[in-house]
Amino acid sequence: MTGSTILMVDDEAEIIKLMSIYFKNEGFKLLQASNGLEALEILRSHPVDLIVLDLMMPQMDGLEACMKIRESNHIPIIILSAKSQDIDKISGLSIGADDYVTKPFNPLELIARVKSQLRRMNLCSSIPANVNEIYIDNIVINIASHTVTVDQREIKLTPREFALLRMLAVNRGTVLSMDRIYEEVWNEPFMDSKNSVMVHIRKLREKIEPNPREPRIIKTVWGIGYKIEAI
After folding, report:
1. Strand, coil or helix: what is 203?
2. What would the pLDDT profile of 40-62 be if each residue is shown by its tens digit?
3. Which CATH number is 5-125 given?
């Protein structure tokens, strides 16, 4: 984790200046961009382990940048925004972000969120390839390569969507409560975070289910949580 490269995209120079101190103290390398276009250009030429992405920026805002990045990249994305309404958070998570931090924020909290995302990525990549394939019906989940195929066609998942699917798959036949899902996948205490879990379940179903409105793989157990049937 130490030495990981963070790309921070924000048009507020003071925020980047402040966070550069915190990231440096934690041993991270920091790349900077002031808008989405600059961020995309940096991604073409520099390896990046995680992106902190502001929403309100000139030229290309964070939402558009996030969608562009997700077209070809699974890098963890943490959205940083002054928009604090639930609908704003849901919008950010729906387009592929892995976490959402509202401004004003505690720099130490943001550092903790960054570390949480990097730990999850490192955990997934550290499992040997010869023991990590999970088969569910027409779905193949490969933990080491962080890939999912449906009918032999690769499906692009965000790191959090992948972690969610992996958790459900490993616990096939077991109903997982929303609070357990949130605490394991988000790696933080569950505090009325049902919307976050529901949004990610919906996006996951849209990507792997033949008919997301009538899910066959990920089942809802009303009043409790979700499960994948034992096959």
Report:
1. helix
2. 999 989 999 999 999 889 888 88
3. 3.40.50.2300
Q: Alpha-carbon distance 74 to 69, whole Å?
A: 8
CATH number of 129-228, picked from 1.10.10.10, 2.40.110.10, 3.30.1240.10, 3.30.230.10:
1.10.10.10
- For the entire predicted model, the pTM comes to 0.61
- pLDDT band of 127, cuts 50, 70, 90: very low
Q: Is the peptide bond before 212 cis (omega within 30 degrees of 0)?
A: no
Residues of the chain within CATH 3.40.50.2300 domain(s) are 5-125
**What are the CA-CA distances from residue 85 to residues 12, 99, 192 (Å)?**
21, 14, 14
CA distances (Å), 67 to each of 35, 59, 218, in order? 14, 15, 25
Q: Which two tokens stand for residue 179?
A: 């609070």
Compute the mean pLDDT over every residue in the chain, rounded to the nearest whole number: 86
- pLDDT, tens digit, 9 for 90 and up, residues 66-121: 988 888 777 889 999 887 677 767 777 777 888 889 888 999 999 998 988 887 77
